[in-house]
């Protein structure tokens, strides 16, 4: 038996999938944050180590012919010390096969379609899009981070939600579902001196800015409940995200990945409605398991594997039937 390994290493979690070169899924693993750009390299390498060991289980690491690792900001591995840390973690698991690092956009796109050419939008805490050609990123758009961009994604949504609350505390607009949800969620200290506005600002300033992304689900909840302010934020978010895709698009399907544009969410539904109008009837698809997409990329990179479309159906489309263990609890941040 010959196998491949796929990893999707993000800022929140690391996931791994082990599959045979013929498309049978053998195991999966999950660990904590694995992006060395956003977290200490040793912590990211530990996540790689843990998730791979869980995915391998009792399987012989010597059977793995290739591993593909999807990583945002993968150029951080160009730093020798970081690359050495990752290589050491790879070897610690018993793997001796090559480790191929690709962008998170490559993996997200592969998790949605076997078509070699198209585009992908990732919208979670941040937002990025890419044009995909021959399964690799040909042009990237966005992904600037919370300070410079990521409009329409989690941090931006949280910031807009807090700004809506500040408009209430300043007396500019009346309270509503969204602002009541945000006020209840923030750790506002009633003993803090000053006005309600100053207390809200203090509550936000005492946390890392990216933690505003935790408020993003409240926008969806309020919009679903009919809150007009939340609905306006949803509309603007969808516009930002669609424009980001349009800047990278050059034909083929568009794959959506990330919690903000998940199926059934207000922003996800809006993007799925607006993109075909904006891009002339484009097919909009949803990404599946990123690590399964990475495993598929690994399998199709080998010279003697079956038809790529058949493999995609086996590894990616059927991932829900894969053997797995319950994920560990996410450590507090």
From TrEMBL:
InterPro entries: ATPase_BadF, ATPase_NBD, Euk-type_GlcNAc_Kinase
Domain ATPase BadF/BadG/BcrA/BcrD type positions: 5-247
Source domain of life: Bacteria
Keywords: Kinase, Transferase
Keyword Oxidoreductase (UniProt): no
Gene Ontology MF, one: kinase activity
Stated name of the protein: N-acetylglucosamine kinase
Source species: Actinocatenispora rupis
Upper taxonomic lineage: Bacteria, Bacillati, Actinomycetota, Actinomycetes, Micromonosporales
């Amino acid at each position: 038996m010959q196998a491949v390994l796929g990893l999707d290493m993000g800022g929140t979690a690391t996931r791994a999938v082990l599959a045979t070169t013929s498309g049978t899924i053998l195991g999966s693993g999950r660990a904590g944050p694995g992006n060395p750009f956003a977290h200490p390299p040793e912590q990211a390498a530990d996540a790689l180590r843990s998730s791979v060991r869980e995915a391998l289980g009792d399987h012989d690491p010597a059977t793995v012919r290739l591993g593909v690792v999807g990583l945002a900001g993968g150029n951080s591995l160009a730093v020798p010390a970081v690359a050495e840390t990752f290589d050491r973690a790879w070897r610690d698991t018993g793997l001796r096969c090559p480790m191929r690092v690709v962008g998170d956009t490559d993996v997200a796109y592969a998790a949605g379609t076997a078509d070699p050419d198209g585009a992908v939008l990732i919208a979670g805490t941040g937002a990025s899009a890419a044009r995909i050609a021959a399964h690799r990123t040909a042009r990237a758009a966005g992904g600037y981070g919370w300070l410079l961009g990521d409009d329409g994604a989690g941090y931006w949504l949280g910031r807009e939600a807090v700004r809506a609350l500040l408009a209430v505390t300043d007396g500019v607009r009346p309270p509503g579902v969204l602002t009541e949800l945000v006020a209840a969620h923030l750790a506002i200290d009633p003993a803090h001196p000053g006005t309600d506005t100053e207390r809200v600002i203090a509550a936000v300033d005492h946390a890392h800015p990216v933690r505003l992304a935790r408020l993003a689900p409240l926008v969806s909840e309020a919009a679903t409940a009919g809150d007009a302010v939340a609905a306006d934020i949803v509309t603007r978010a969808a516009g930002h995200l669609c424009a980001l895709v349009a800047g990278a698009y050059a034909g083929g399907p568009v794959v959506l990945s990330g919690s903000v544009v998940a199926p059934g969410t207000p922003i996800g539904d809006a993007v799925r409605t607006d993109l075909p109008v904006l891009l002339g009837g484009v097919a909009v698809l949803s990404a599946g398991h990123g690590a399964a997409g990475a495993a598929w990329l690994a399998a199709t990179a080998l010279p003697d594997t079956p038809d790529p479309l058949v493999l995609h159906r086996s590894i990616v489309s059927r991932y829900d039937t894969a053997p797995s263990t319950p994920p560990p609890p996410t450590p507090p941040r």
